[in-house]
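Q: I have two molecules that I believe assemble together. Could you output structure tokens for the complex as a whole instead of separate predictions?
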Amino acid sequence: MKIQGLTKRYQGRTVVNGVSFSIPKGKVTSLIGPNGAGKSTVMSMISRLIAQDEGLVELDGTHIGHWKSRELARRLAILTQSNNIQMKLTVRELVAFGRFPYSGSRLTAEDTEIIDRAIAYMELEEFQDRFLDELSGGQRQRALIAMVIAQDTEYILLDEPTNNLDIYHATNLMKTVRRLCDELGKTVILVLHEINYAAFYSDYICAFKDGGIAKFGPVHEVITKENLSDIYGVEFEVQTVKGRPLSIYY
Amino acid sequence: MKSNRITAVLAAILAILAAVSLFVGVIDLELRALIQGDAHTWEIFLLSRLPRLLAILCTGAGMSVAGLIMQQLCSNKFVSPTTGATISSAQLGILFALLFLPNSTLWGRALFAFAAAIAGTWVFVWFIQRIRFKDAVMVPLVGIMFGNVIGGVTSYLAYQYEMTQALSSWLVGHFSLVIKGRYEIVWLTAPLIVLAFVFANHFNIVGLGRDFSKNLGVPYNLVLFMGLSISAMITASVVVVVGSISYIGLIVPNLVALFKGDKIRGTLADTALFGAIFVLVCDMIGRVVIAPYELPIELIVGILGSVLFIGLLFYRLRNGRKSIRLTAPAQSCCPVPAKEGGCEA
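A: Yes, here they are, computed for all two components at once.
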């Protein structure tokens, strides 16, 4: 996936300015940065949720605006925080929607099998007939991930997936992200606020500042004391724990 | 399997009630006379009783399904043809037909009603999508106000052109004028309900939000447009024939969803059946209470409906107030995704 010169303006104010980078296939890439740096807007543009004013997002050599939306839905999945999952749908019904880009309303035997596997993968078997509005936030998030797994896309984009989750659920979610990449070979792109989650569970980091990319590269190159202090404007200390850079800010 | 049983039970109840209703009325219809082929009895049966029953079934099923679709698309349990200005718009459309095409046929009036109902519903939904309401209960309140504004315009115009009398037949719903040759437009609800069933999953997905739909490759605006138009057309074809019938589109889908959830594919049949039963029972009450006269269906539905509505309101407010919050879908309609808004629930 190639991103070139992506620009977005809201009412004359440039929010994202000429962002270009390539997302490495089969890796976990996290977009980090302070509020308003443009990472979520970039995410929305890569996933065609909002249109860019300038620039290109290429998926397999074709601009995503030129993809048929149903076909794109088989290649790229996006989960945002704005999903209205208060609805009285069962977990299984939600996960089944993941097959919609393939089979529409008629599920084939193969679809059913994929749905079963997705539910099992997220260990939701015992909840599969429960209504979403009866579940906890963490369980609901897992149901949404199961849906994305059923959608069976090469690219999975998650916009602040750890928001509103406690440490237990957030950590388990990040472990799931790692498994999606390592076991299922997915390319995962995340927007994260927690630098340490990004550092411990991603392969690449793309750090945003003021609507542009401040640093992009493997975790060790980006997560350094100097870079982070510069990006966030507060004092940082970075130590190595379990071979990963752990940052402390104060 | 259990859910299929509920559907079967509802269908059986409806069949029995429908059969009984054919023999309730001012003129006694005897089954024996029908079987013996008595011409007069058959005439009453085919001219009045059967059309009435069919109109009731189409009305009950149609209005419930219209409400179900609107509630799903707007992700708000209190939106319906009554609380979404659809009915009052259809009435305004009929008035326009009476004003501009005084000699218009029923079909001509229906076209005006369709156009007005669709336009009115679109304007209402466009409006509620642009305003972020803190509380989901605000949405139907705005809808009721909007509907009353349209109703006010209708009354004013009707008064101005001395049309009040002509219009009154469409203001209060009743089945007493339903006879062969005058009600067939209401059959349109049947293909529209089938269409709703075909696109049931689309409506569900759109109800889950704009981003959610885009992710699955479902064209949000198109489906929203189409779904609202289907609801509006169902409503308009009922209003043209029967007049205004409130509450059904609001209450029936809610009651069914309490038991069966929000997956439209799973609830549509039950909603339609239950709606038909509800209207049929109300109609039979109306025919029996002060026999040989009859009360308009709108009155009975209004009384039963408002009681149920209050009950529902209390239930929703006490249990899972969250489930009627508009926070998430309202967010998805903003041009800039506002992340922080999600915390207020």
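A: One point stands out. Residues 173 and 243 of chain B are 4 Å apart (CA to CA).
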